[in-house]
Amino acid sequence: MIYEGTRIPAFAGMTIHKIPTPKAGEKVRAWRKKNGGGLRQRWIRSGVLIVLITLVVVILTFSLFINSNFYLTIRTGLEAKAKTATDFFSNYVVKSNAEYYDYASRYTQSFEDSDKLELQFLDDSGRVMFSTFGISAGSLPNTPDIAEAIGTRQISVWSGKMSSTGERIMSVSAPMVHSENQVVGVMRYITSMRLVDRQIIISILAVCALGAVIMLFVVFINLVFIRSVIEPVSEITKMSKRIAQGSYGIQINKDYRDEIGEMVDSINEMSLKIAQSEKIQTEFISSISHELRTPLTAITGWGETLIYSDQLDGESKKGVGIILKEARRLTKMVEELLEFTRMEDGRFTLNIELIDIVAELEDSIFTYRELLHQDELELVYEPYVEEMPPIPGDPSRLKQVFLNIFDNAAKYGREGKRVEVSVDMDSSFIYIRIRDFGPGIPEDELAHVKMKFYKGSNAKQRGSGIGLAICDEIIRFHGGELILENADGGGLRVTIKLPISSSI
C-alpha cells in the first residue's frame, strides 16, 4: 500500500527540543513524590488534617467533660437526697432502734423513686433490713461505702461493679443517728450506671456525628476552593506546558478578573510574542537559506570545474579542494536550515510507501563507506540474518537520517577509528543501531542534544546544530523514536526505532 504525498500536519511553532523526555518525566514524578504530590492533594490533605485533628481534640475534651459532669451531677444529687432524708430521720423521727425499723419499713413501702433508685436500709452491722428491690433481709452488700459511713458518721459514695451481677452502680450510704448520737443503721441509695453510660455514649456519638458533618462541610469547602482556584491554576499549567513544548500562539481562556486573570493575560501575551518571534526567526532563516543557495551552487560548480583543470598546480588544487569542502559543508547547513523551516511552518511532507528498510540502509552504507574510509574510519555492518517485512516509510527521508548520523559518527567519533551498524527487530519494531567509539556525550547533555541549535561541550566541529533535531523529527513523523545513549566501553550509540506496521 502506497501513501503518496502524505502531508504532515502543521504544529504551531513546533520545536523539537521542547518535547518532554522520559528522564524529565521521571524527575517530575520524583519531585511530586518528594514533595507530597500536587497542590490539589496537598491542599486537601492539609486542610482536612487540621480540621480532623481539631475535631478529635474537641471530641476527646467533650467526652471527658460530659463523662465527669454526668457522674458528678448524679453523685451530687444522691448525696443531697441522702443528706436531706437522714437529717429528717435523725432529727424528727428516729428516737430509738425500734422507731428506726418501723419508719424504715414504712418509708421503703412508700418510696416514690423506686423506678430510678434502689433504697436500702441497713442495720449497724451492714446487713440489709429493707429494700425496694426485693433483696432478702440479712444479705451483706459489703461495699466500701457502708463501712465508711458507719465508721466516720459521714455520707460515703462508691461506684463500681456489683460482684453478683457485674453491673456498674453508684451507691451513696448515709448513717442514721438517733438522739443519743448512736448509729442505728444506714440509709443507702443505689443507681445503675447503665442508663448513664448509654446517655454518655449517645452524647458522644451525637458530637461525633456533628464532627462528621463539619468534616464533610470542610471537604466541600475545599472542593469549592479547588474548583475556583486550583483547577484554573492547573489548567494554566497545562497550557503553559503546551507552550513550553512548542505550541506557540495558543491562548488561554480568561474567565477571571483577579490575580489569576492577570496571570492568564501575561501568559497569553508571552505566547503571542514567542509565536511572533519564532515566525520572524523562521522566515529569516528561510530567506537567508534561499539567498545562500544560489551562490553556494555556483561556488561548488566552479570549484569542481577548476579542481579537474590541468591549469592549476598542486597548491592551487589544494586550495580549491578546501573551498569545495567548505562550500559543501555550507550547502549542507543551508539544506538543514531549509528543512527546519519547512518543519516549523508545516510544509514538511513525507512520501510514504512500503520499503525495504534494510536495502535503504545498505544503500546509505555503500554511499558513505568510502567517505569514512577516506577519513581512516572503518564501517562495520552486521546485517540481520532473517528476512524483514517491508515497512511504511519515506526512503529519501530515512536515507537523510542514516547519512546524517553517519556524518555525526565520523565527526565526533573520529578518534575511535570505527563505526558499527547493526539491525534487529521484534514483533512490533525494527531497530537500527549506529555506534561510534568516540568520547560520547556527557550524561547531563544527553537530554538536550536533539534540541534545535544545541551544541554540546564535545562539539568541536562546526555545524548548524539542527541535524539531529531534523532526524528526530523525521523519525517521529514515521511513528518511531530516535534514542541516544552512551555505550558501554565508550562512544555514542544511536538507535533508530521504526514501527513495522503503519502508525502514521
Structural features, described:
- With 504 residues, this protein is α+β, with helices and mostly antiparallel strands.
- Among the domains are: 95-196, PAS domain (Beta-Lactamase, 2-Layer Sandwich), CATH 3.30.450.20; 350-504, Heat Shock Protein 90.
- The chain has helices at residues 22-34, 39-93, 97-109, 144-152, 194-244, 259-307, 314-344, 357-374, 395-412, 467-477, and strands at 3-7, 118-123, 128-131, 156-161, 168-177, 183-192, 349-355, 378-382, 391-393, 418-425, 429-436, 481-486, 492-499.
- The two termini are 13 Å apart.
- The model is unreliable at 1-28 and 31-36 (pLDDT under 50).
Number of extended strands: 13
- Cα-atom radius of gyration: 48 Å
**What number is the mean pLDDT?**
77
Encode the helix/strand succession as letters.
EHHHEEHEEEHHHEHEEHEEHEE
Number of helices: 10
Fraction of helical residues: 40-55%
Superfamily at the CATH H level of the domain at 350-504? Histidine kinase-like ATPase, C-terminal domain
CATH fold-level name of the domain at 350-504: Heat Shock Protein 90
Intertermini distance: 13 Å
Low-confidence stretches: 1-28, 31-36
Which strand order spans the largest sheet, edge to edge or round the barrel? 3-2-6-5-4
The level 1 CATH classification of the domain at 350-504 is Alpha Beta
Q: Give the second-level CATH assignment, the architecture of the domain at 350-504.
A: 2-Layer Sandwich
Largest sheet: 5 strands, antiparallel
Gross geometry: rod-shaped
Q: How large is the share of residues in beta strands?
A: 15-25%
Helix and strand content put the structural class at: alpha+beta
